[in-house]
Amino acid sequence: MQLSTGDWAIIAGYLLFALLIGLAYMRRAGGGLTEFFASGRSLPWWIAGTSMVATTFSTDTPLLVTDLMRATGGVFGNWKWWAFLLSGMMTVFFYARMWRRSGVLTDIEFYELRYSGRPAAFVRGFRAIYLGVFFNVLVMASVTLAATKIGQILFGWSQWTMVLLCGLVALIYSVASGLWGVVITDLFQFVLAMVGAFTAAYYSLSHPAVGGLGGLLEKLDIKKLNLFPPSGDFQLLIGVFLVPLLVSWWAVWYPGSEPGGGAYVAQRMVACKNERHSMLSVLWFNVAHYALRPWPWILVALSSMLVFPQLSDIKSAFPNVAKDLVRHDIAYPAMLRFLPHGFLGLMTASLIAAYMSTIDTHLNWGASYVVNDFYKRFLRPAASEKHYILVSRLTTVGLMVLAGAVSFLLKSAARNFEIMLLVGAGTGLIFLLRWFWWRVNAWSEISAMIAATAASLFLWVCGPSIASRWDFVAVAGPDGKVNLADHWKLLGTVCVTSITWLAVTFLTRPTSRETLVKFYRHVRPAGPGWKPIAREAPEVKSPDRLTESLLGWVIASVTVYSALFATGSLLYGRTTVGLILSAVFLASGIALLRIIRPSSDDRGAR
Asked: Least packed by Cβ within 10 Å: which of 171, 261, 487, 539?
């Protein structure tokens, strides 16, 4: 498919805009690490929150949604990520204020605020490299893989072309302007990406094989439209719905959905101007991420089931695409080829924006770990701010090069998603409890990392052998080979990891009393988990109320889920159910507004 002159003009205009933003904030970002990585701690909630939304709106996200739906057989496949709303809303009401109060530059710096001694220093240094380089590069490579598939399907572009075109521009303004350039460009990128998503949904439904929304509902098997998996399929019910909803959201560490907040979500929270803005930023992120964005992607995925029912149909339509890249996720870009010129340029620009909004954040976030929590902390603790800014920019370049190289090793969006969930399985409970239970220590975190890695590797290697002995945990892969289902691997890893770190916590000495009291005075956590420490700081009064936080978490989750399912029910023509859910959304939304109304503490929080 050839782009017209108008298409190229739209793409060029967007890329030029992104570069100008980077240059405009270059001087400000050079003021020091706080400016480069935290925007001087002055972001308003709507900028910080929109930046989080734009970051999660990456090129691999609609491909992941398409992959999950086509592979599982219906809309219900999205529960694998819908369940993480519970984690996100918990961050809003239990953790966002404390993150802002902590005053850390990165969430990795938290380790030496909360723990003491060499174990704390080890965890900080190790996770700075493990998450900032290894895990971060894997995420960026996955996003780059998705961009490659889109480029190959639509324009026949090679992987190198896509990486150089999009990655270079994102790299330039990320290096130049730090977090300032990232969050400002994210505002525009979010709007552009949303317009592109709705455009793709409209033209997908307009395809002759689909016949509009009415044709989609008439032609498609009703089972594929279901929001919940069929009760008769045990493996599907467990893996797609029960495990995500009951376990994954609190047990698994995954960028953007970390229990208790972390990674770039924590980066945005600590960059906000005060505690209230920190809370509102994550609230807006979760509302937009789970209620506003899914249905355009879902409609394209459903349409693809009629246009390209089998992978063989995609292979026939795109014979020049590398065979090993043809998975279910490639059906999303395959549907985009039906866009007319003008809209094709807009959609291409929106996908480039989606790619860049994720890459720029991960570059800045990863560099913050490497520089602030490893290089500055352990190698050059007394260098000048100018020196650290230079190292930050060089690190940013290095991360982009690594991500581009690793992208050649990956094949599928859903497969990458499952791998990243499995590696982080079992550690999430620590991230929830370490704020509210004084007994958690650095050894808890170290043992959890070791146990999660060992258990996941064991189940990965021995999965086929286990599956051959117990049929109820077995599943056939795309190659026809029987293996241990991913959800059983995740459950096994969670169990081993949780038992290990809890045992180690009670078998090792707690964090030093001095550090615990200092942390308690500084962060002021609420709840009974700090009673032994609170006795030594009787003057400290926490501004948080756990009962109010619990109520806010429940109501906010109901608000977003009711909005999500009301939209789907109305699109399906299920008017009565849609109106009931809309009423639930309205009632819970009003209650939510009352809960988050500003208080005197909010007006004074800094």
From this structure: 539
Q: Checking DSSP bridges between strand 482-484 and strand 474-476, what pairing results, if any?
A: antiparallel
Q: How many CB atoms lie within 10 A of CB 71?
A: 16
* Mean pLDDT, the chain, integer: 87
Instruction: Please state, in angstroms and rounded to a whole number, the distance separating the CA atoms of residues 572 and 468.
Output: 41
Distance (Å) of CA 413 to CA 141, 189, 516, 571: 10, 22, 42, 27
Give the C-alpha separation, 318 to 315, whole Å.
5
Instruction: Examine the pLDDT at 604 and tell me if it is beyond 50.
Output: no
Instruction: Give ∠ CA 541-542-543 in degrees, rounded to 5.
Output: 115
Q: pLDDT grade, residue 360 (50/70/90)?
A: confident
Q: Got the DSSP string for 344-371?
A: HHHHHHHHHHHHHHHHHHHHHHHHHHHI
DSSP 425: B
Distance CA 400, CA 580 (A): 48
Torsion over CA: 270, 271, 276, 277 (sign):
negative
CB 364 within 8 A of CB 392: no
Q: Are 561 and 286 in contact (CB under 8 A)?
A: no
* 499-558: pLDDT as tens digits: 999 999 999 999 999 999 999 999 999 999 999 999 999 999 999 999 999 999 999 999
Q: What ranges do the domains of the chain cover?
A: 1-409, 545-606
Q: Which fold has domain 1-409?
A: Sodium/glucose cotransporter (1.20.1730)
